[in-house]
Amino acid sequence: CFACSKMGATITCWKTGCDRSFHLPCAPQGECVTQFFGLYRSFCWEHRPQQAVQACPRQNNTCCICLDTVEDKTSYKTMVCPACQDAHFHRHCIQRLALHAGICFHCPCCQNQESFLMEMLTMGIRISKRLPPSWESDPAVGALEQRHSRCDTSTCLCPGGRKYTEEEGPWELLQCRSCAAEGTHRHCSSLENGTSSWECKGC
Questions:
Q1: Residues 132 and 64 in one domain
Q2: Four-residue CA torsion sign, 29, 13, 79, 100
Q3: Residue 42 in contact with residue 33, Cβ under 8 Å?
Q4: Which of 125, 147, 132 has its CA nearest to residue 77?
Q5: Domain tally for the chain?
Q6: Residue 196's CATH number
Q7: Which residues form a coiled coil (predicted)?
């Protein structure tokens, strides 16, 4: 292996005439690219594909994923979105995003998917076939997406209790239009049937 100098390197550069070999775990250390699609080609640091689009030099270049500083030009470690050409990111950051996003993987800035996906695959970013994205199956995220569903007035008048709700009428539950963290039945806050919004005392 040209990266670690140990035996057992089974991956050889695809470029004709190049005899550099390396272990798959040594690829990042040797700045090699392995493509996880099509012919599954691998390239050494000298013959790896380069991004045609160049990152635009600007002050305070930051990775749009981790917000740490990135180089002001494309390199093995710094990549740019081919569509908007404004999204800069570290290779290891976009690789982690690709594994978590799965088939929903797209540019974190401009949301482009088609040209972005092909470029990332060509540059050696491995994309999982995960569906849905990992964050959608996270219990903490699920809890955040749940709608507040109880009456928080000091005295709830509903015979069915604070969590009872109907689609319309006096027992329809309304959320606070500002914070969405408190709710009330129409009747418990003396709201008319035509009232479509309500604000809690804290707001």
A1: yes
A2: negative
A3: yes
A4: 125
A5: 3
A6: 3.30.40.10
A7: none
SS3 (DSSP) at 24 = helix
Greatest distance between any 2 Cα atoms in the chain: 83
124 shares a domain with 56: yes
Write the pLDDT tens digit of every residue in 73-123. 889 999 999 998 888 999 999 999 998 888 889 999 899 999 999 999 999
CA–CA distance from 174 to each of 157, 166, 169, 201 (Å)? 15, 10, 11, 14
> 142-160: buried (b, 16+ CB within 10 Å) or exposed (e) per residue?
eeeeeeeeebbbeebebee
Q: What are the residues facing 79 on neighbouring strands?
A: 89
Q: Does the pTM of the predicted model rise above 0.85?
A: no
Q: How far apart are CA 188 and CA 155, in angstroms?
A: 7
Q: What is the CATH number of the domain that holds 86?
A: 3.30.40
